[in-house]
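Appendix B.2, paired examples.
Example (i):
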Amino acid sequence: MPAGALLGGPYSGTMIVTRASIVDELVADQTQWPFTVPAVAAMRREGMSFDRPVTFLVGENGSGKSTIVEGIAEAYGADVRGGHIGRRYASPGTKGPLGSALQLDYVTGTNMRRRPRGFFLRAETAYGVFGFMSDHNVHGYGEEHLLHVSHGESFLQVFGARFNEPGLYLLDEPEAALSFSSCLALLAVLDELGRTGAQVVCATHSPVLASLPDATVLQLSDDGIAPVAWSDLALVDHWRRYLAAPEHYLRHLLPRT
């Protein structure tokens, strides 16, 4: 499968993971979720290749983008709840069915005995992870305790303190806590990571994040996985049409309109 559709010129950053593939022998039951999700089924047939430091996965709810990011995180050895990669107190919990069956191919010369650093941000568990780190004064989770800042500000603290070195950054809908301007701030962070030796794989609903120049954009749908130019994304088309004329959508939803 082609790696992706680009908006601009190539990055010069260093890759870490070049491919994620599903090992059939490790799949307990191919007729059960998540292997029945079209994008995961496509990944099982063809794998998912990465040839740019930043890759976005976009698609509707249930399309498999978060499932795939979580599976890659588990295969890489991240705590399934999220947080910085490589810490000794990672979750001992059993991997999910996809994470257990995934094989990651690394760039030649990557020393997996000293696994590159990085971060797994899982929006649904981030508050608990950040709170734990704040309570234990773990470096890199912000100077101010989680309870003293807003949800979005806690994310920005982590981006500023942790997203600043080579490693693998796996993000599951990071825009969930962010305003428009904060999404732009994260966009700049991801661009800098991609240019300074890090790799990013991000599942998102945000047309702002997916607009990052030079990034690969993969659209997940009932047809599987396909590289798509940002301007051709269904996500972008819907937002454009809604903002131009919201009444065209609202009249089907709200009786008074």
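Example (ii):
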Amino acid sequence: MLARYRITPTSPLMTPLMSDTIFGHFCWALSHRRGTAQLEAFLASFDGESKAPVLFSSAFRAGYLPRPVLPPPPQSEQRQLVENYFLSEPRGTEDDAAARQRLLNDWTILKAWRRRRLISLEDWLALKDGYSELDFLGRLAKRGEPTEEAHQMINTAETSNTISRASGQVTEESGGLFIREKQWFVPDAQLDLYVAVNEPALVDDVDWFLCAYLPQNGFGKDKSIGMGALSIVRDAAFDETLFDTPGANAQLTLSMTAFDGMGAVPARYNLHTKFGKLGGSFAVCGPDGGNARPFKKPLMMIEPGGVFFTAKPLDTVPLLADVHSDARIRHCGIPVTIPLFVKEIERYVY
């Protein structure tokens, strides 16, 4: 079952709403609600043979999905697109300065469109049965889309001081300064979160976690001082069959992705280095009860929008091991995926 939840941020976020972080919050919430034994059984069910019981996407602007990461069309096809959609009159000769400037402006618009990170659900549903970058750019050109992608969020960097718990004063090392990023949202901003639940017994836990636990407790860093406040409701109108794509030859990832054996599947993607941390009680003491060891090993992960050229979903792989000095710790890089049919797939598969 694939469900969609609508998130309304009611405060800034100090921690981005990434899939693996949301999964970690769910694990701690499940432990609080059902007990440690239930959590251990849940994690053990990621055995690499059956479907993952629960997977989360990252959160995206409402009504949008991550745009598939594919190379741009050949120059000849891009030139044809410019001529078809932009040039209302002949360019003239190569010595015509005005025509050359007009062509340069048109190419600049096309280049800006290629940098877009999101695709609207309207465009996705129109293209998923035969996706190509050229067709996507053609839809933007036909509508006369602006070059700048609309954003609901602004990232800011803030300087903070490190206070010594012993003296109550700023530490001397490097002046005690460090930088933290904060995400601010425009009024009435909304985000979509997709959740794949393959174990029916967990549907109630997922609803409780998203619609009750997170709104009551907050998400990420500094939630104790009001950051990470969210209002979340399940989108009852969502129909998962919208994403059905008969004859699909690829999978679009909606999550941060990393799993053993990933390199065996041809793919196109953007990478993100993740410096993960343990949460819950493990943030203040080690898993064995000793000194805190909150930092995980750095992970190279694929950002949402990665395209794996396989007809099969990627949800039957195990959690990542060897991500922390404590061998019991795992990390979820298993993605929620939706199918698509990529035109001229031979262009993109090595």
